[in-house]
Amino acid sequence: NTAMAAQMTDAHRRFLQVLMSKGITEGSEARKLHHYCCETDKVSYAHDKLDDFISTINRHLQPLFMQIRKGMSEEDGRAHYAVVNLAETEVTKMASDYTEIELELFRKIMDLIILSENGFASSTDILNLADKLKTKKMKKKEAEQVLQVFVEDKWLSEKNGEYTLHTRCIIEMEQYILSNYQDVAMKCNICHSLAVQSQVCESCGIGMHLPCVRKYFKAQTEPRCPQCNEFWSCDIP
C-alpha cells in the first residue's frame, strides 16, 4: 500500500501544475483543488489526506530541488501552499524577472519592512529610497510602477499605502531572511516560523504573529507573555 501511495499520478501532476501557475494557493483552495484533481483523474480521494498527497509530490520534486511548502498568512493565520525553488536563493530567483535596479529597490524595501516595528513600510519611505539607489537613481513615477509590479507578482502586499512582505515571499524567503537579518529577524514564539508582522514583548523581546497572539490570549483572562510571564502591553488584535 505504501508503494502505491508514493506513486505520482496524473492527479498529482495536475495539482502541481495549477499550484505552479498560481505561485501560492490558500488552504481551502488547495483542498478543493486536491478533490478536483482526484475526481478528474479518477484517483482515490480522501479529504483529510492533502498533506500526504503533497508529500508524494515533494518526494518526486526532490531531485529538481523544488518543494511545495506550507506557510501561514500573517494577516489571518490561514494556511497557504507555495512552490519553492530550493536551488536558488530569492535573489537569483528574482534576478531572472527584474533588472538590477529593481532588485536593489526590493532589497531596500525588505530592509525597511524587517527593521520596522510592525512589519510595514510606508509608500512615502519607499519612494524616498528611489533616488538614493546605488545602481542609478529611480524617478518616483518609475518606483511607483515597480512597486505595483512587486504587488502583482506577490512579493509585496499593500494595505492603505503601507507595504509588507506577501505570504508567498515569506514562505519562499524565510531561510534567506533568517540568515541575512540574524540580529533582527525573529521567529514567532508560538508557531516558530518567521514573524514579520508581529507584536513584541516589552519586557523580554520575544515576538508573536498577530493571529498567534489572538489565539494564544483567547483562553486567558489576563494576557501574560508566554516567555517571561510579564503583562502583555500590546493591544490584542
TrEMBL record:
PANTHER family: NON-SMC ELEMENT 1-RELATED, NON-STRUCTURAL MAINTENANCE OF CHROMOSOMES ELEMENT 1 HOMOLOG. It comes from the Eukaryota. It is an enzyme of class 2 (transferase). It holds the Pfam family SMC_Nse1. Component of the Smc5-Smc6 complex. Its EC number is 2.3.2.27. Residues 188-229 form the RING-type domain. This is Non-structural maintenance of chromosomes element 1 homolog. It catalyses: S-ubiquitinyl-[E2 ubiquitin-conjugating enzyme]-L-cysteine + [acceptor protein]-L-lysine = [E2 ubiquitin-conjugating enzyme]-L-cysteine + N(6)-ubiquitinyl-[acceptor protein]-L-lysine. Transmembrane segments: none annotated. One of its GO terms (molecular function) is zinc ion binding. Belongs to the NSE1 family. CDD domains: RING-CH-C4HC3_NSE1. It is found in: Chromosome, Telomere; Nucleus. RING-type zinc finger-containing E3 ubiquitin ligase that assembles with melanoma antigen protein (MAGE) to catalyze the direct transfer of ubiquitin from E2 ubiquitin-conjugating enzyme to a specific substrate. Involved in maintenance of genome integrity, DNA damage response and DNA repair. GO terms for biological process: double-strand break repair via homologous recombination. Keywords: Chromosome, DNA damage, DNA recombination, DNA repair, Metal-binding, Nucleus, Telomere, Transferase, Ubl conjugation pathway, Zinc, Zinc-finger. One of its GO terms (cellular component) is Smc5-Smc6 complex. InterPro entries: Nse1 (IPR011513), Nse1_RING_C4HC3-type (IPR014857), WH-like_DNA-bd_sf (IPR036388), Znf_RING (IPR001841), Znf_RING/FYVE/PHD (IPR013083).
